[in-house]
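Appendix B. One record, verbatim.
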Amino acid sequence: MSRVSERLEAAVRANSDDLLAYLERRVGIDDAPDTLAEVMTVAWRRAKHLPTLPVEARMWLFGIARNVVSNAARTRIRRTRLADRLREVASAASMPAADDGVEVREAIAALDTDLSEIVRLRHWEGFSLAEIASILDEPASTVRSRYAKARDLLATALADAEPQATPRLR
């Protein structure tokens, strides 16, 4: 074992309880051991920078711990912001405007469950009929015929729901 490794091991041994207590106050009891492991990993990677005096080595370890906690906090904030943005985008994309497409959604909902699922997988999720057959574990010919039936039923339902065209006034 090299001289630097011995000094680092001694510094870690002398300060690990205090570092763990520091981290428990910063990140909580549950996350502190993992955070301490990360502090130790960084310390081992940067061992050549370890000060020779025990007091300075202690401060150096606490500096590493502080940076690890700060990095974790920044990462948590970025992940939270990203998750919030993704939720906004997903809800905006899946939420139709007021009554936009209500007739279509109602017509699809009125179909038998098997037929409506095929229509949704095809048009909302973008799967091909062959892929849908695989997803549903059905023969491709069955999915094709059900899809054709669903299209016919939807065409009829939507034609009946279409408002009568009113002549334009000039």
